[in-house]
Amino acid sequence: xxxxxxxxxxxxxxxxxxxxxxxxxxxxxxxxxxxxxxxxxxxxxxxxxxxxxxxxxxxxxxxxxxxxxxxxxxxxxxxxxxxxxxxxxxxxxxxxxxxxxxxxxxxxxxxxxxxxxxxxxxxxxxxxxxxxxxxxxxxxxxxxxxxxxxxxxxxxxxxxxxxxxxxxxxxxxxxxxxxxxxxxxxxxxxxxxxxxxxxxxxxxxxxxxxxxxxxxxxxxxxxxxxxxxxxxxxxxxxxxxxxxxxxxxxxxxxxxxxxxxxxxxxxxxxxxxxxxx
Length: 277
Ligand SMILES: NC(=O)c1ccc[n+]([C@@H]2O[C@H](COP(=O)([O-])OP(=O)(O)OC[C@H]3O[C@@H](n4cnc5c(N)ncnc54)[C@H](OP(=O)(O)O)[C@@H]3O)[C@@H](O)[C@H]2O)c1
Hints:
Layout: E1 3-6, H1 11-19, E2 24-26, H2 36-41, E3 49-52, H3 59-62, H4 66-87, E4 90-96, H5 119-134, E5 138-143, E6 146-147, H6 153-162, E7 168-170, E8 174-175, E9 178-179, H7 180-191, E10 196-199, E11 207-208, H8 209-219, E12 228-230, H9 232-236, H10 253-257, H11 265-276
Parallel strand pairs: 1-2, 1-3, 3-4, 4-5, 5-10, 6-9, 7-12
Antiparallel strand pairs: 8-11
This protein binds NADP nicotinamide-adenine-dinucleotide phosphate.
The site of NADP nicotinamide-adenine-dinucleotide phosphate has 25 residues, from helix 1, helix 4 and strand 4.
């Protein structure tokens, strides 16, 4: 597979670059996917597959700068889909469960109606639509709660645990973390065998943010009870926050049928924290 990774300096981009050491890795500085001239002028000759891990991921900030989020998350994929049509490469595009409102009960399958609650989710939903409409060969992978090499919830909780802080964390938003190394491995497998839209997260029982924080605290030698639960409504009071889906659990049946097995998030958390201790 002759691959190219875009957004190569982000959490997923780094994991993809590690999984595909021969890939052409382009960080933000090397190719700005929101710049139509830069994408049109880039020579993708020789690439069989382009993984788009570039995104505007600041969920709260997006509410105040929608044009910036839209430029990367909606227009970027539009430009890349045009390049995919011209060069004939498979475009593997990564999206999010924030394209849903999270009102469904239980794990959400791929055909759940798009109904984003905020600007970030709306911009990502538009990106998905652009890829489906413009890239003749495409794979859209939705994921949730990404944890890799970079700023993320697990890193924050591990730091608070080490610093002796006892944080307050929401208990009524549930999901499953997705460790970037496992996501990258799944993307590479899926690129070789699936097209369309597929959900990928780590496996295991869904957990709340509070429950995940307590697991991180326990692994850092802290008392999990030091993480105090709070409702989303209480937490959001007085904060300028984007609305977030209560249910972030993505259904993995299609992934399983494609023959891709994901480690449980608890095992992946052990591996992740073990590698950093
Ligand atoms: N993080 C999560 O919890 C989560 C959850 C569900 C889905 N996802 C999706 O998973 C994918 C990977 O997320 P991630 O966690 O790896 O995000 P990340 O760590 O924030 O990385 C995103 C990367 O994209 C780069 N980027 C931003 N604008 C760009 C542009 N115009 N052109 C090229 N690169 C640009 C960023 O560079 P700069 O730092 O220089 O801006 C950064 O290196 C994204 O599609 C995201 O929407 C993430």
